[in-house]
Design a protein that fits this description.
The structure holds two protein chains of two kinds. By secondary structure, chain A is α/β, with parallel strands linked by helices. In chain A, strand 10 and strand 11 form a beta hairpin. Chain B has an eight-stranded parallel β-barrel. Chain B is globular, with a radius of gyration of 20 Å. Strand 9 of chain A pairs antiparallel with strand 8 of chain B.
């Protein structure tokens, strides 16, 4: 397979696309728009927004990728209606899935190309350990090279398991999204997949207990996002003061990321990835 | 039905006592020395990263636990639910699986799809229960995993009672679920938490970072303040909402000995069994029975 780097712009906000479509078009290296939401089902764009984003992409000769995340039953219909619309466009459109249930739905659409999302590539992100070496708990452990052994495994993913790769191929999955991680990631060109990476943020953790949603939910003892979320994350994010203990951390919505710009040159040299996805949160 | 973890401290007599109370469903993590000598405790076989205590570490202990359970018609499931395993670890996993098969373990709790595929390829047809760490949020996910013969799903800890009921109503009656009702709810979602646990004796979620709320409007200083998040430990009241489905639900206790020094496991189990046997019971009644074990004042997991 020949590798040539493709660049894509990713956002979950339609106003970012409408404001930046012309500069994006002028930059001949950017050939694709990623639109959607990976982390919070309440922020998944409306059908109207998806139609508008797709229309802008096509008018400006850009390819289109819809990004989806884990969803409960109440939000599945939103995804289905989006997929139905995109299927009707009679053009091969990528759909990123981070939930095997959503994949189950994508399978039934013949013109939609499933792409495995980075939340399903469950490698340990280790933002604390790019700067300081981790100290394993060596109680009863006599392996003098414990950290080196662990690091070797921490670079791997379950993509190293052949039966799993065969399964993914049978499902028509040809592209896999990844996060850049400080310890490095072992991917192999011979596996027969294309790989994308995201910058400037790698996802670390998150979930439905959302502190930012909790700003206006003071009556609750924990802040599980519900239907009534007013999405204060549109107006705020969280920055972390870690005194250089970790790579810089930020929380957008319900998810925490680390800045991975410093890792990009190393990964680019490896020529494993052929798509760079530039995030605008 | 209740599901209870067993660990390094579980003696044969403890297990027999729990069985005599009516518990017939248990789960364990197995960390033999050939594993932790190679990979340490942080790269666990399961989702517990503390040395020794949360696991069964000796083969003799494993044999005793399984044979005692089977003698009394109880079932034991082995948690192999780390998010993923590298192919490098599979020779060691194979040893664990081979021993478990020999001892006729009742099934495996798995999160990694690669491991599920591997087990089925190796013609291991025992029950596989989908772990919380796989992230089963919707009916389509259940449908996806059914193709591998999975019929029992550990649900994510952040689903509301309404969302759990929705899953019960939209799946066939042979699909069963396991729901946490007592133990520590992680701050983040298990299935999508990719932090490395255990290093430096500190988890990412417990690290002391100063967080600052920042406005996306340049120059604006937010007046709003970040809330302080409480970590729930109890959600027993959900039984009051889900009791019509009790025949399809196993309620799970996740009791790490280190976290609950003041809790008498037997007393806790007796209280929850009393609630289960009550049938149609209100949340207030649940709280009254739970008494000092009720966390209503601090953090109720399901906000009932």
């Amino acid at each position: 397979m020949k590798y040539k780097m493709e660049y894509a712009v990713y956002t979950n906000r339609i106003n970012i696309i409408t404001k930046t479509i012309l500069p994006i078009k002028k930059n001949s290296r950017i050939t694709r728009i990623y639109f959607g939401e990976e982390f919070c089902e309440y922020k998944f764009p409306s059908l109207e927004e998806i139609k508008e984003a797709y229309s802008l992409a096509i008018k400006n000769n850009l390819r289109f990728t819809l990004v989806t995340g884990p969803v409960t039953n109440s939000k599945i219909e939103n995804i289905v209606s989006s997929l139905q619309y995109l299927e009707s466009q009679k053009s091969f459109i990528e759909i990123i899935f981070n939930d095997w249930g959503v994949f189950n739905i994508i399978k039934s659409f013949s013109r939609l190309t499933p792409v495995m999302g980075r939340m399903l590539v469950k490698i340990n992100r280790m933002p604390r350990y790019s700067i300081h070496l981790p100290i394993p708990f060596s109680y009863l452990v006599t392996n003098e090279n414990l950290w080196e052994t662990q690091k070797n495994v921490l670079k791997d993913t379950n993509l190293s398991v052949e039966v799993y790769r065969q399964f993914l191929k049978r499902q028509g999955i040809k592209r896999i999204e990844c996060d850049l991680v400080p310890q490095g990631i072992n991917l192999n060109k011979e596996w027969g997949f294309y790989f994308s990476f995201y910058t400037p943020y790698s996802y670390i953790t998150g979930g439905r207990t959302c502190e930012i949603a909790g700003i206006y939910q003071k009556y609750k003892s924990q802040f599980v996002t519900q239907e009534k979320c007013t999405q204060p994350c549109k107006n705020f994010y969280i920055s972390f003061e870690t005194n250089g203990y970790t790579l810089p951390l930020k929380q957008f919505g319900n998810s925490i990321f680390f800045e991975n710009k410093k890792l990009v040159p190393v990964y680019l040299k490896s020529k494993i990835f052929n798509r760079c996805v530039i995030e605008f949160f | 039905m209740l599901s209870i973890p067993l660990n390094y401290l579980t003696r044969k007599s403890d297990l027999e006592k729990l069985i005599s109370l009516g518990i017939s469903h248990f789960y364990i993590g197995y960390m033999p020395s050939f594993w932790y000598q190679k990979y340490g405790w942080e790269l666990s076989t399961n989702r517990r990263f503390f040395p020794v205590l949360p696991h069964i570490t000796a083969e003799t202990h494993l044999r005793e636990i399984i044979s005692t359970a089977h003698k009394h018609n109880a079932r034991i499931f082995l948690a192999l639910n780390y998010h993923y395993y590298s192919w490098k670890q599979y020779p060691f996993l194979r040893k664990i699986i081979k021993l478990s098969e020999e001892l006729e373990i009742d099934g495996y709790i798995v999160s990694d799809l690669a491991l599920i595929l591997y087990l089925r390829r190796e013609k291991i047809n025992r029950e596989i229960h989908l772990s919380t760490c796989a992230g089963c949020y919707n009916t389509q996910t259940i449908s996806f995993y059914e193709q591998f013969g999975i019929k029992h799903f550990n649900l994510p800890r952040k689903l509301s009672p309404g969302e759990i009921t929705e899953l019960l109503n939209t799946t066939p009656s042979y699909i069963t679920f396991e729901i946490l009702i007592f133990g520590e709810w992680c701050k983040y979602s298990d299935a999508y938490c990719f932090t490395a646990h255990g290093y430096n004796r500190e988890n990412f979620c417990n690290s002391f970072f100063i967080k600052k709320l920042v406005s996306k409007q340049k120059g604006a200083i937010p007046e709003e303040k970040l809330p302080s998040t409480a970590i729930p430990h109890c959600g027993v009241c959900i039984i009051s909402k889900l009791h019509p489905y009790n025949n399809r639900i196993i309620y799970k206790l996740s009791l790490r000995s280190s976290d609950y020094p003041g809790i008498d496991k037997t007393t806790l189990v007796r209280k929850i069994l009393k609630i289960l046997k009550s049938g149609d019971i209100s949340a207030q009644k649940c709280q009254k029975i739970m008494d000092k074990y009720c966390h209503k004042k601090h953090a109720c997991a399901y906000e009932i």
